[in-house]
Write the structure tokens for this entry.
Amino acid sequence: MTVFDLRGGCVALGGREILHEVTVSVDSGEFVAVLGANGSGKTTLVRALVGLVPLAAGRLEIFGTPIAHFHDWPRLGYVPQRLAVGGGVPSTVREVVASGRTGRARRLRRLGRADHAAIDHALEDVGLAHRGKDRVATLSGGQQQRVLIARALAGEPEVLVLDEPTAGVDADSQDTLAGALGHLSRLGGSVVLVAHELGPLAGLIDRAVVMGGGRVLSDGPPPAPEGHHARADHVHTHAHEPAVPGRPSVLDPRTFDR
Amino acid sequence: MSFLQFAFMQRALVAAVLVGAAAPAIGTFLVQRRLALMGDGIGHIALTGVALGFLLGTAPVLTAIVISILGAVAIELIRERGRTTGDVALALLFYGGIAGGVLLIGLSPGGSSATLVSYLFGSLSSVRPIDLVVIAGLSVAVLGVVAVFGRELFAVCFDEEVARVSGLPVRFLNILVAVTAAVTVTVAMRVVGLLLVSALMVVPVAAAQQLSASFRATLTGACVVGVVASVGGLIMAFYADVAPGASTVVLALGLFLVAALGSQLRTVR
């Protein structure tokens, strides 16, 4: 089963084309990392996949349904790129995580036993079960990022899309995150993850899509660990490199960072 | 309790309880999405609506509701387009609303800016029995919106993009908040006045969040502070013969100070 199937996807923002005929698909159960330098289009790609930015051209199917007719949104979990959890009113960790359940809940009904169990599991998965009653604002940046991931997990999604979940996150939180995503993956869930650095996530990746200049530069198995600069968390393209589609495989570490 | 023997005071008190609970309830969501001044913006637009009512010879409350709903939806759509920032959109409405109000009242026969004053600051004797029915109906509607859509509104006000991906009807919910805020403003204008109505949507929330850790507790606490302030302000206004809007807001600010001090003491200890 294909989770995302994007063919020839173009995205224009403010009159400028950001993605140029991108073709990417993600199968059920796959763990895909979207890598690339700043401005390579990786965030725009995942935002297009979850329907936050419209396609100017091309075709996108989610779980086999064209996006215009797709309504089964609770099957998706999305974790945006955020530095901090905001809002003008204090909220507890549990309230924020519970809000991830809203897509599955019914109006006028209290959250049921299954809902509370899903919220409890999500909090446990990110190691914050004991912080449920605390104000979100009192948590560290890494812990707040974990709250946002727990919010997505609370909806019990089949696919989780995360935008730079490791950016600016301490080592402990990165390990917890890797544990939670590995758990989801073992249960058969799919993960699409935008990252600059893979860190402890490197071992979980099935496939790496490398973006550059709004195109897919390579799409294949993650780079094999081989020498200092070949580490998966070191993959990045350079601005002076031409953005040519179908360029040599990411497996060749010399493609990058030369 | 001598004030209770006056029928207009009984009506004003019932109105104060309803408005005191409804305004902070929707205000909590506005503060959450950092649109605390939205109520004020809508209040200015409502002024145009009131003046239009005088000009057309219809009920000013009716035209105020219609005009402020249109204005609130306009704010929301401008914000959604993202071309103009929220605060610039609000500024446009502030100035347009107040200029429109003064302009239209000048055009209406026998009208002057003085006619608007009772709407600007509220007046005790202005709540007629028919107004009370309208205020009661609309307050219940506002509280009903919060009760029915509260969970979704929290999700949208907390993180609009994630709410969109989880399939919530984001545009509908945004417009629902805007329209509910507009209705609240026009409901409350008879009691606290247009200039200060926004205070009743924001100050009780600010007071409650000093002492609460959760959104739910803030919302409930804000409603309690709102009711205490509006009822207390009304009684103050009756005895001191001042505008009820002013005494209500001063009382709410006093409660905010007490809460802020309490919160300080708690962290020091």
